[in-house]
Design brief:
Distance between the termini: 48 Å
Helix content: 10-25%
Shape: elongated
Strand content: 15-25%
Number of domains: 4
């Protein structure tokens, strides 16, 4: 039985994720815990490992698609269920076997959709004649269903037919195009043959698994030709539809597909063999004429690699031509059309999924919690000395460097046990007081921020905490965190002081009620023992707390306890 691979929940408040990359393709062997695909959420970019050994039989979610957590994205089995209609980027062989009518066609190749050309759907009468003729010729009729493009997709709109009844079709050749609420995709033919019948017209929305067409698998079977009267009727009913490639060019020679000329639009570019992804990239980079790109795909199709290589090579043939065409076609921007605050050249970057979600959650936290802040100063002199004395021995004994972070975590953990309402969360009009201290540690990434969680930190020593911090930080930056390691936090610590800041005023990590910001440790003159002046290693601590639950007195009592814990660490606590 095939094993279902689902979109993991990478955070307590995460409801969806974007599948950004597949490391395997259908038919590939996978090993348990081997990276299978990469996802991006508002809290983490992560590689998701395979849950078991086997063969990747089916990919149900394409790269770039955003789906809800627990959506099935792939199936792993023994290889017997590998869909034979899953082509590679450029397939050089054709499987002569005819797919059974029940074989699904939902698994479309990524970046492998060939030519799109506007085709006219013939009327139902010639389609019926075609079926009858094919049946008399002994041809096997294969039902083509509306594929299910996702677990939650119940229907799809058939937006375009690439073939007419009577046209020959090849296995894996695009047959029609569909649109759902999650994806637009070209559906390939499951077998060689002749399109015998079209049952669903362009623009119609039907349930998944509805039969939309039938293919006569025997290409030699007699297919009834459309009569001139029927062709005229079809022409009158859809006067604006361009003739298909299968119609006689002697009647309409002016509509033969040509290479786009100067000033061509995206509609012209679509006539070059290319996928929707390629055309999207072309639009984003102002390339209206795809014919200037040499396609390396099947039949000269322009692949994603072709267009990315073209964009990345300014000396490539046609680049200047495209730039000149776009410059001539684009009017000068009026002052009112400039971006706000722009006074010179700007680089426009699209927000990543993580960055967009971080922005959303920060704004939501500000709207949700009544943020109040309390700043304390702590003397870290004894901890600095303790670390200096023990750091080499600690490294030899534990295999990791001793940093200051575990001291802050331990001090907060012990204080939270004394003041449990700071280790709480709010759920509607209910207060959830957590018995365990699950400490979230903010880790800076190149393109965002992630908060892995150390569970039951109250049971760990300084060495145990340090090992957990090091392990989680390394795997966070390597996109190796597991879903359970970024959920369930009850209190969070962030460390802006590592870059020299005196202190930061953090935003609460929902649904928690407090977060501690740690400032940099620096030597400052301090009054000690009455009126003596001494140089001490000092740091600022800033607590942001939710005044809906935590009052000022409770917050200051908690902070006073954290300060006391930091200033009174014993050396034996390192073990």
């Amino acid at each position: 039985m095939a094993i279902e691979v689902t979109m993991p929940q990478m955070g307590e408040s995460i409801a969806e994720g974007t599948l950004t990359r597949w490391f395997k393709k259908p038919g590939d062997t996978v090993v348990r815990d081997e990276p299978l695909f990469e996802i991006s959420t508002d809290k983490v970019d992560a590689e998701v490992p395979a849950p078991a050994d086997g063969v990747l039989e089916k990919v149900l979610v394409e790269e770039g698609s955003t789906v809800e957590v627990n959506t099935i994205v792939a199936l792993i089995g023994d290889g017997s269920g590998v869909a034979i209609d899953t082509p590679a980027e450029s397939s050089s062989t054709v499987n002569p076997a005819v797919e059974s009518p029940s074989q699904p066609t939902a698994d479309l190749p990524r970046e492998a959709e060939p030519e799109e050309a506007a085709e006219q759907v013939r009327t139902a009468e010639p389609a019926v004649a075609t079926v009858e003729s094919a049946a008399k010729g002994g041809a096997e009729l294969i039902d083509i269903p509306m594929p299910q493009m996702g677990e939650s997709i119940a229907e799809g709109t058939l937006t375009r037919w690439f073939k007419n009844p009577g046209d020959s079709v090849s296995r894996d050749e695009p047959l029609f195009e569909i649109s759902t609420d999650k994806v637009d995709a070209e559906v390939p033919s499951p077998a060689d043959g002749v399109l015998a019948e079209v049952l669903v017209a362009e623009g119609a929305t039907v349930d998944v698994n509805t039969i939309v067409a039938r293919i006569a698998s025997d290409s030699t079977a007699p297919i009834a030709s459309t009569t001139q009267d029927q062709a005229d009727a079809a022409s009158q009913s859809t006067p604006d539809s361009p003739p298909s490639q299968g119609e006689a060019v002697t009647e309409t020679p002016a509509v033969a597909i040509q290479s786009p000329a100067t000033g061509s639009t995206d509609g012209d570019a679509r006539r070059v063999r290319s996928s929707p992804l390629v055309r999207k990239i072309a639009r984003e980079h102002g390339i209206a004429d795809l014919s200037v790109i040499t396609g390396t795909g099947a039949g000269g199709r322009v692949t994603k690699g072709d267009i990315l290589g073209f964009i990345g090579d300014p000396s490539a043939p046609g680049v200047k031509q495209v730039q000149q065409q776009e410059a001539a076609a684009t009017p000068a921007a009026s002052p009112s059309a400039t971006r706000p605050g722009s006074s010179g050249e700007v680089t426009v970057e699209k927000m990543s999924v993580m960055r967009r979600k971080i922005a959303e959650h920060m704004i939501e936290s500000r709207r949700t919690s009544a943020h109040v802040h309390s700043v304390f100063e702590a003397d870290m002199t004894e901890i600095v000395s303790m670390r200096t004395r023990n750091k080499n021995e600690f490294l030899n004994s534990n295999g990791t460097k001793l940093t200051f972070m575990p001291f802050f975590i331990k001090a907060c953990s012990d204080a939270l046990r004394i003041f449990p309402h700071v280790n709480a969360s709010i759920d509607g009009d209910e207060i959830l007081v957590h018995h365990s201290v699950n400490m979230g540690i903010a880790v800076a990434l190149d393109n965002g921020l992630i908060v892995p969680v150390i569970k039951n930190v109250q049971d760990l020593s300084i060495s145990g905490i340090q090992k957990s911090v090091t392990d989680l930080a390394i795997r966070a930056r390597g996109k190796q965190l597991l879903p359970d390691e970024v959920t369930g936090g009850t209190f969070t610590i962030t460390n802006p002081g590592q870059f020299g800041g005196l202190f930061g005023i953090p935003i609460i990590n929902q649904p928690q009620v407090a977060i501690l910001g740690i400032g940099g440790i620096e030597k400052r003159p301090v009054v000690v023992d009455g009126d003596k002046i001494a140089i001490r290693d000092m740091t600022y601590l800033c607590l942001s707390y939710d005044h809906r639950l935590v009052d000022g007195a409770l917050a200051d009592q908690f902070m006073a306890q954290v300060k006391k814990n930091l200033e009174n660490f014993e050396e034996y606590s390192l073990v």
